[in-house]
Amino acid sequence: MKSKFVSYILATAVIVLCYQRSNGQHLIASSEIEKNVAGLHYGASLSIETKKKFSAGGFYQCGITQLEGNVRPTRTFYALQLQFPLLTCDKIGIMLNTKTGFVNDHYLVFVPAVITNIQLSPGLGVSIGSGIRMQNASLIGRLYLTL
Amino acid sequence: MRNLVLLLLATLALSCEDATFERTYLIKQGEHYATHKGVEALQSNTLDFYATFDRTAMYDLGDNALQSNKNKLMGFSDCNSLHHDNSARFAWQWYGGKLEIFAYCYVNGARIEQYIGTVAIGEKNKYTLRCMPDHYEFKLNNQEIVKVERGTTCDKGLYYMLWPYFGGAIPAPHDITIAIERIY
User: Does A132 touch chain B (CB under 8 A)?
Assistant: First the structure.
C-alpha cells in the first residue's frame, strides 16, 4: 500500500516536471526562517511558478522548543501559499506573498507578506521580506531552488 | 550582493528570541473601544498575558447596577462564532472599592459570568485563558482555575481576538489605560 502511494507520488512528480518544463513553468522548493513576535519559526514550501511569476503551493512551518530536554515543534502551520508579482526586473522580483492555513491544526490564519526575490544563479535564489503575523511585523528570510 | 544577503539571513537565524509584546490600550472618555482594536486570529489554545491597571481603572457611575457591568479585558471568539454566540474573555469591574476580575463567556448565546478574584492597582498580574475541548479554563496568577463550559462549536476555524472594551451600557467616564503584555 505504502509503496503504491510512493510510486503514485513519484509518477505524479515526473508528469508535473515534464508538463511544467514544456510550458515554461518551474517548481520552486524553498526553506524559510521567519522572525516574528512569537520567536523564530522555520518553514519549507514547494510551489509551482508560472512564466509570469505567479506561484501556488504548499507551505509548512513550525517553531522549535525544548521541553524537558526534548526538542519539539510548536505552532505548526500548514498553509496554501500564493505569490503574486508586484514588480519584476531582471534578477529581482518584488512579490506579494499570502499564506492561508491552520496553526496547530485548529486555528485558521492568514499571513500576508511582501517579499523581494533575488536570483543568485539560474537555480538558486534568496528572498528577504516582511509580513504581518499576530498583528506585528515579521521578518522573513528564504533560500529557494528552481527545479 | 550574495554575501550581503547571506549575512542578512544568518543574522535573522541567530537573532535572539523575544516572545512577549507590551502595548498600552487607551479607552478614551465617552468611548467603549480601546484605541487599538486590529484584527487578529488566535493561533493557540492558550491566551497568556500580563495586565496592569492604573488609577484610571477607578470610576464611579453613580448606580450599583451600572457599576456592576463588566468591562472586557481580553479574550477570543470561539471557532467560527460571533462573540455574542460563543466566546471567552477576562472581564473586570471597579466595585466596592476593589478591582474585580471575572470570567465572561457566551455559550450558545447565553452569557455566563464567574468571579475569579481581585487585583491591586499598579500590580502586574498574569492571566491565562485556555480553550479545552469542552470547557474554558481561566487562571489568574497562581490561583485556582475557574472552569466554564464551552458551547457547541466546530474546532477547526477562525478564532478572532477580542480587545479591551469599556461597558456595559455606559461608555468610559474618563480616559482609561491598561498595559497588556502578551506572552506568545
Answer: no
Residue A70 clears pLDDT 60, i.e. is over it: yes
Residue B76: pLDDT band (50, 70, 90) is: very high
A-chain residue closest to B17, CA distance = A39
A107–B42 C-beta distance less than 8 A: yes
**Inter-chain touch B157–A136, beta carbons under 8 Å:** no
Q: Among all residues of chain B, which has the CA nearest to that of A40?
A: B17
Contact B72, B168 (CB under 8 A): no
H/E element, B147: strand B146-149
Q: How many CB atoms lie within 10 A of CB B72?
A: 23
Interval B31-47: pLDDT, tens: 999 998 788 999 999 99
- Domains of chain B and CATH, by start: 25-183 (2.60.120.200)
Task: Please give the residue of chain A at the shortest CA–CA distance from B76.
Answer: A107
Nearest to A134 among B43, B156, B157 (CB): B43
pTM for this entry: 0.84
Question: Is A30 exposed, middle or buried, given 0-12, 13-18 or 19+ CB atoms closer than 10 A?
Answer: buried
Gap from B166 CA to chain A (nearest CA, Å):
22
Of A8-12, B48-52, B133-137, least confident by mean pLDDT is: A8-12
**Could you tell me the residue ranges of all domains in chain A?**
25-146
Give the residue, A22 or B28, on which the prediction is more confident: B28
Task: Write down how long chain B is.
Answer: 184
The C-alpha cell that represents B175 in the structure block = 480616559
- Output the pLDDT for position A4: 64
Q: Which CATH number fits domain A25-146: 2.40.160.20, 3.40.50.980, 3.30.460.10, 2.60.40.3710?
A: 2.40.160.20
Asked if ipTM goes beyond 0.85, one says no
- The CA distance from A18 to the nearest CA of chain B, in Å, is 31
Residue B157: DSSP 8-state: B
